[in-house]
Amino acid sequence: MTCRTAILALVLCSALTTPALAETVYVRAGHLVDPEAGKVLDDRLIRITDGRVAAVTPWSPPADSAPVIDWSAFWVLPGLIDAHVHLADVEQSSNVAEPLLHSPEEIAYIGARNARVTLLAGFTTVHDVGSFRGLADVELRNAINRGDVPGPRISAIGAYITIPGGGGEVTGLAPDVTLPADMRMGVAATPAEVELKVNYLFQHGADSIKLIATGAVLAEGTEPGQQEMSEEMMVAAVRTAQSRGSWVTAHAHGAAGIKSAMRAGVRGIEHASLIDDEGIAMAKAKGVYLDMDIYDGDYIAEVGRRDGWPEAMLRKNDETTEAQRRGFAKAVKAGVKLPFGTDAGVYPHGLNARQFKYMVRYGMTPMQAIQSATTVAAEFLGMSKDVGALSPGHWADMIAVSRDPLADITVLETVDHVMKGGTVVR
To answer: Quick check: pTM over 0.90?
Structure first.
């Protein structure tokens, strides 16, 4: 090797190993809502380096005279988190066969559209808890992470783990209709099959696992109060997920199924509609999160009746909606951990923030409701180091609204500005 060649090699090596100069962005926040401290800090300067918060200080012009994003007239919050959405799927309709009418390719485009709408509504992180097309949420997450399409940060489950004909299947079809394989990716009938399916999902990119422990409101032929998955099957799922450093949440409406899932070791319960006092006390004692979607029952009742949804769905919705809200109010009083989760996809994406006023109506303070969609949801998803707050080290995901959300929580239904990773997207 000549001397000149050696020098060139050293230069190239240095270029590959030396980090690029850090990009710095500044935001002036007129009123910074800090969910970690539970208070509002007036007139703050947020310094952002390489997409993450580097410092939060009282306002003064940056020493380097760099441009400042001026949100001094706004209330600034961390980007919101919805811990229960279905982005990569069609929205609920009166047709039980609707999922069969859309190809995987079409679902990909639908998911991209839903992701963009969700991000612009101020939800910069979501837990996508399932699509009928297996791994559609994983691929959407990957596309967003690559920068192919705009959308929130996604924690994905890959596919529902459900019993044959259970609440996670497309049901209500003629007996001779054969479902595509990707719509039955998580179907399991024994603990051994559950272990195989859970391992398969992790091997193909799932972040966590969702079990369908009981019947569902919106699945024909299943009943919300009926436990479908045995405790042994749920234990197998939890054990397998833990061996991979991950965790499990369980769709569970009925009181018995909720308690069985908690005994099995799940981290969270989705819906918890018919939870009893014993279940609430168990959730508190075990530190289990109750992810209760207390808004969409009103949407189902109104739109479902208007559009002729199946009568069984409407009946089940009527039987669970108010019961769920009573349970939510009790859980708030008991100090149970309650992340913000809405079941978006049952109702149109982008309307997620409508749930805030219901959470306040049923016992939370506005600050608690904000914390449910920031610090609490981030903790639930295991993402507290990255999202849910605007202290140093977190991604610079934030929203700005024109009025005080602590005085009127409904202001979060119409956000003025959205930033993700230090880039303004609205």
So the answer is: yes
Q: 3-class DSSP state for residue 51?
A: coil
Domains annotated on the chain, with CATH = 21-79+389-424 (2.30.40.10), 80-380 (3.20.20.140)
Residue 115: which residues within 8 A CB-CB, separation 6 or more?
Answer: 87, 140, 144, 149, 150, 151, 152, 154
Return d(Cα 374, Cα 96) in angstroms, integer.
Answer: 34
Q: Please state, in angstroms and rounded to a whole number, the distance separating the CA atoms of residues 230 and 227.
A: 8
52-58, strands of its sheet edge to edge? 52-58, 39-49, 24-34, 68-78, 398-401, 417-420, 423-424
- DSSP β-ladder status, 39-49 and 24-34: antiparallel
Task: Find how far residue 424's CA is from the centre of its chain.
Answer: 21
Does residue 367 sit in helix, strand or coil?
helix
Strand, coil or helix: what is 385?
coil
Question: Is-contact 132 183, C-beta < 8 A?
Answer: yes
Query: pLDDT digit string (tens) for 212-222?
Result: 999 999 999 99
- Nearest in space to 168 (alpha carbons), one of 77, 82, 54, 271: 271
pLDDT of 65 reads 76
Tell me, what amino acid is at 319? E
**SS3 state of residue 154:** strand
Mean pLDDT of 394-423: 98
Q: Which residue has tokens 């190239």? A: 12
pLDDT tens track for 282-320: 999 999 999 999 999 999 999 999 999 999 999 999 999
Determine the Cα–Cα distance for residues 275 and 265; give it in Å rounded to an integer: 17
H runs (alpha helix) in 287-421:
296-307, 311-334, 355-361, 366-372, 375-380
Q: Are strands 80-85 and 289-291 parallel, antiparallel or unpaired?
A: unpaired
Q: What is the largest CA-CA distance in the chain?
A: 82
Q: Which amino acid is at 283?
A: A
Q: What is the DSSP string of 105-136?
A: HHHHHHHHHHHHHHHHTTEEEEEE---SSTTH
